[in-house]
Amino acid sequence: MDPLSALQKFREYFESYVPLTDEEWNALSQYLTVDTLKKKKFYVEAGKVCDQIGLVVKGAVRYYHVKDGEEITGYFSFENEMLSSYKSFLKRTPATNYIQTLEDSVIVNLNHKNLQQACMNPLLGFKMERFGRLTAEHYLMCYEDRVTSFITQSPEERYSQLLETGGEALYRIPQHYIANFLGITPVSLSRIRRRIMKISA
Amino acid sequence: MDPLSALQKFREYFESYVPLTDEEWNALSQYLTVDTLKKKKFYVEAGKVCDQIGLVVKGAVRYYHVKDGEEITGYFSFENEMLSSYKSFLKRTPATNYIQTLEDSVIVNLNHKNLQQACMNPLLGFKMERFGRLTAEHYLMCYEDRVTSFITQSPEERYSQLLETGGEALYRIPQHYIANFLGITPVSLSRIRRRIMKISA
DNA sequence: CAAATTCCTTATCTTTTGTTAACGTTTTGA
DNA sequence: TCAAAACGTTAACAAAAGATAAGGAATTTG
Q1: Is A39 in a helix, a strand, or coil?
Q2: How many Å apart are CA B55 and CA A126, to the nearest integer?
Q3: Which long-range contacts (CB under 8 A, 24 or more apart) does A184-189 make?
Q4: Among A60, A200, B74, B76, which is least packed, fewest CB within 10 Å?
Q5: What distance in Å separates the CA atoms of residue A34 and residue A3, rounded to the nearest whole number?
Q6: What's the pLDDT score for residue B199?
Q7: Per residue in B46-96, pLDDT tens?
Q8: Distance in Å, residue A190 CA to nucleotide D13 C1'
Q9: Residue A53 CB: number of other CB atoms within 10 A?
Q10: Which bases of chain D are under 7 A from a protein CB atom?
Q11: What is the rounded average pLDDT for all residues in chain B?
């Protein structure tokens, strides 16, 4: 994918939250960079400060923690989704997780310094602030739902719901990552799948 | 607590994110209302749209869902914390949870219409937007940590960590609410407590 | 103040999950 | 292309959690 159409995708995403004039877009695009990452490359590594937020324009990434030497996958971002270790980025503290590409990916990035400059740019400041608020609110609501699912649902219920809402993404992800995402082990997910198959069969 | 000092607390909270001139504060305070709620009164009810966000100035509230006729407590807000059913407030959809006072409480509120007007007020718009972004980011980071705890920790580990970080709030809350918060049953939390006592004894 | 309710613990039993290991299949990468 | 690694399932056993019920202490409330 060429850099220009990658940037164009970013513009479309941004404008789904906050419309821009061509002049504003010209200013904003100066702050952006386009990165191409091969499969299994790291976007964020635990222990290092995450210095940028990005938009996945092509490909996919997974977020994971390492505990007792084991990888525990907590999240994914696919095309047209933002990615970052938000806490690390916002507080400028070392990340506690890794973000790694699942496929060859193209990511449009905005680093911390450029974001600050864009926010101070009188032409863009207000709209950047607004985009930041709407983006944070979006992911806040996603997390709200996810915490609710941990509180109110059993692993089996969470998996059944994921089957309904997960869409095609489910078929691009190994099952043991999905197990981690649900907060259970791969073995347990395999048993749940068998239980569900028996019921619906 | 008199309304004036309640509003003053709101100003202090707001200014911990975004400083205000006296003039700006005078404008902002016009949009606020102060509510006093007796213990066990509802701030939000499932099925109704949550029309306001608030700051707990005194007292405390709990958030809970009802599933199969059972109350499942998912969160709390204490003094100097915001409260709302964010998704319901932001999307103007019916809330799926209840928010109820745990004690007699004083809450400073900003309703949806007033927030919109404040955002369109040229004197305040930019700072409101900024406050909204920073608030959303704050709770996003809280949720990020909480989801991570569900993914990477056992219930026992989550409880141990809560004992370290929870502070005095833990002593104001019945234990079965804490069990729900951790994603387990009250009986299971009681067993965990016994296991921990034996180890540290 | 007294009755009722709430709260926490404990016990018993059932269900589910975690752990470890094995096996065949698929995918990966040198 | 071919050996190695990764993946999903299953089994067996241990550990933990859920469900239900009972009892006593603490709190609430009329």
Answers
A1: coil
A2: 25
A3: A184/A155, A188/A155, A189/A155, A189/A159
A4: A200
A5: 6
A6: 62
A7: 999 999 999 999 999 999 999 988 999 999 999 999 999 999 999 999 999
A8: 18
A9: 21
A10: 6-12, 16-21, 29
A11: 94
